[in-house]
Amino acid sequence: MPSFRNSDSEGFGLTVERFVLTALWVISLSVCPAIPKRKRREAWIALLACQAMTWVSTMLHVWFGLLKFPVREFPKATDLNFTTEFFFYPFLCALYVISEPKGSGWVRFGHLAVWLTVVSVIDQAIVSFTDLIRYEHYAWYWTWITFGLLFAVTNAYVRMFFRPAALQSERRSPP
């Protein structure tokens, strides 16, 4: 079986890792205009909230030796991969939050489970075919659980942020 890993991470050639990073940016940025105008504020809040939590969570994973990021955009600044941890996964979380269906808890949980499975499959593909992420003492199901917590907390935060009572209190005129 041919190896898809490219050990030449030096220089300016287009390695598999650089191609994947570029593809993640292009795909994400090309989806941005498709976000409905009425949902953009929710998407921004979800992206920013998830960014903060993902960054801290991944820093802890790296600090405890669970994950490594051999190929990074800013190797002297951080031990994390900027594209996946600061942009792509939070962007997927924002898409999840704005696409959550109205309905029973089972429908919403099913929606979350589908999104978590998609994110875990993408993460596993990145782990298997590139040197962007390396699982040291980690497995795919931890990814599913970790992102489940991050997505659920982000969704709860956005729902709290945009609840009607909170929005009405801003619009009141001073006494």
UniProtKB/TrEMBL annotation:
Superkingdom to which the source organism belongs: Bacteria
Residues that span the membrane, as ranges: 12-32, 44-64, 80-98, 105-127, 139-162
Keyword Membrane on entry: yes
Keywords, sorted A to Z: Membrane, Transmembrane, Transmembrane helix
UniProt-recorded name of the protein: Uncharacterized protein
Native source organism of the sequence: Paenibacillus flagellatus
